[in-house]
Write a structure and sequence with these properties.
Length: about 325
């Protein structure tokens, strides 16, 4: 049995691709994942209030949003398999995909939506205060009342850290940017903005080493990376912006990736370097990384896959 379309991954990109593919009457199988690269549903499953997803004027809880997308994919006929894909062979056609539970499927077309994982520091106290002061997404969590008029810290020195620090000044009284070296990697323009911002204080040679508080984060211990001196920084928030790791380990020798490991897509499309394989969402996006942009590229991938399969005249349809 050869599947028309297999979608690997179940964040906003994967479910949106499944909804569009279902509506195009493509028989679609989705590997939702199980634990590799996070729980099914993607990064929004570990977020609380999502206030910027259009259509939810009062905001929506991340897991609730993903549950709705999942239901919508099911409504349009997607077959969801809660299992991790552990191997793919894109050198043969139909493409071969194997899962941890030993399911082996062949696919005429594949959409990869495996996302990216925000890097964490795994500090002592991190698990306890995750979503209660510690986060890896300022845009997702910055408006949380916890941070209103508070002092907060951002770790990192790249464009993400600088952007997050600037963004967080809307809510926080003061933002401490913790940079482990003595230079920022961010673009010059962004650097100028943080240097000139009165609410941002840069701590050079600084790395957080532990998080403390009661029910919520109250302070972070930081170490001077040059002298080793340890000090306390009383903050109500700690945001990691130390980069993301795209979940592309499976595809390393099979698809063209950029130097950071993201899948390369062609022009304004979601096409990869192999005809019949598309990539959508954070696995191919190192710039925007929003639920809405992931959903948008999931839609694009499904439309492109549908057109391509029609041109091949090789797919079967099913009534929904
Ligand atoms: P980067 O890899 O550029 O920067 C990561 C930063 O985190 C570096 O300053 C690094 O320090 C620091 N860091 C890494 N590990 C640790 C650690 N364990 N402890 C403390 N600090 C750590 O990641 P970004 O996510 O910022 O950016 C990724 C790419 O996306 C870049 O190409 C960037 O330009 C792009 N981007 C573009 C945006 C835009 O155009 N609007 C917005 C956001 C990102 P060190 O320098 O010492 O290694």
């Amino acid at each position: 049995m050869v599947e028309n379309l297999v979608i690997i991954g179940s964040g906003p990109a994967g479910y949106t691709a499944a909804i569009y593919a279902g509506r195009a009457q493509l028989k679609t199988l989705v590997f939702e994942g199980f634990c590799v690269g996070g729980i099914p549903g993607g990064q929004l499953m570990t977020t609380t209030e999502v206030e910027n997803y259009p259509g939810f004027s009062e905001g929506v809880q991340g897991p609730k949003l993903m549950q709705q997308m999942r239901q919508q994919a099911l409504r349009w006929g997607a077959m969801l398999i809660t299992d991790d894909v552990i191997a793919v062979d894109f050198t043969q056609y139909p493409f071969a995909i194997a899962s941890a539970d030993l399911l082996e499927v062949k696919a005429r077309a594949v959409i990869i939506c495996t996302g990216a994982t925000a890097k964490r520091l795994h500090l002592p106290g991190e698990e306890k205060f995750w979503n209660n002061g510690i986060s890896a997404c300022a845009i997702c969590d910055g408006a949380n009342p916890l941070f209103e008029n508070a002092e907060i810290a951002v770790v990192g020195g790249g464009d993400s850290a600088v952007e997050e620090a600037l963004y967080l000044t809307k809510y926080a009284r003061k933002v401490h940017l913790l940079v482990r070296s003595v230079r920022l990697r961010a673009s010059k323009t962004m650097q100028e903005r943080v240097f000139n911002h009165t609410q941002i204080h840069i701590h050079w040679h600084s790395s957080p080493i532990s998080a403390h508080g009661d029910k919520v984060l109250r302070r972070v211990q930081i170490r001077n990376t040059q002298t080793g001196a340890v000090s306390n920084l009383p903050v109500g928030g700690l945001f990691y912006a130390i980069g993301h790791t795209p979940n592309t380990q499976l595809f390393q020798d099979q698809l063209e990736l950029d130097e950071a490991g993201y899948i390369k897509t062609q022009g304004k499309s979601t096409a990869t370097n192999i005809p019949g394989i598309w990539a959508a969402g954070d696995v191919q996006d190192r710039v925007y990384r929003q639920a809405i942009t992931a959903a948008g590229t999931g839609c694009m991938a499904a439309l492109e896959a549908e057109r391509w399969l029609s041109e091949q005249r090789s797919f079967v349809t099913f009534a929904v």
